[in-house]
Amino acid sequence: MSAGSAIGKTWWRWALAAVIVAVAAAVALWPQLTKDSERNAATGSTTVAPPPEAAVGEADRGAAALAACPQPSGAPVGDSPLRGITLNCLADGKPVDLVAALAGRPALLNLWAYWCGPCAEELPLLQQFSQQAGNAVTVLTVHSDRGADKALSRLTGLGIHLPGVEDPDTKIRNAVHAPAVLPISVLLRADGTVAKVVVRPFSSVEDISATVAAELGVKA
């Protein structure tokens, strides 16, 4: 056997060994890559795009029969942490400049989600309070998660017709530095400034009335 032939065979043996090692490494890493992908999806990592939200049809909005979101009145606005936040109205999907729309009247923003049990118990109390308060206080629900279609379905099932907005990125909760729990109620003065962040569910209509009276000075 010539020296060149021996060298050629040796080179091919090394090349084949390198391929085997590369394949073995890929097989070894595959479970870890799969786990990383699953972990990213579970934790909401920015390296994995969230699944697209289901489209909300006019039939869903119509079935919910929610009250229209408030519109800007031109009333003066104070130094509110909510200034600049624009959210979509659940009733029609149109954008709402939150502080501008609420200015001129005290407001109660109720942060909730379709999967939240205590929220489902509290929402009927808020609707009763809103009917009792009339024009003295604006009660606005804030769906603080993704899934506007699920929010509308939940409201329809509960018979809740309060005006509401979508806040899938929890902009309001972050702006008022509230903890990551639900439900939360944010009480706003007429100029949009925050009077109180209530981190608990209300237990009764009387509880809501007493809290609003104490923090906003409005008896309703």
Explained architecture:
The protein has 220 residues and is of the alpha/beta class. 45% of the residues lie in helices and 15% in strands. It has 7 helices and 7 strands; from the N terminus they run ααββαβαβαβαββα. It has a 7-stranded mixed β-sheet. β1 and β2 (95-97) form a beta hairpin. α2 (58-64) packs parallel to α5 (148-158) and α4 packs across α7. The longest helix is centred in the N-terminal third of the chain and has 41 residues, at 3-43. The termini are far apart. The model is unreliable at 17-49 (pLDDT under 50).
Give a short synopsis of this structure.
The chain has 220 residues and is of the alpha/beta class. It is built from seven helices and seven strands; from the N terminus they run H-H-E-E-H-E-H-E-H-E-H-E-E-H. The N and C termini lie far apart (104 Å).
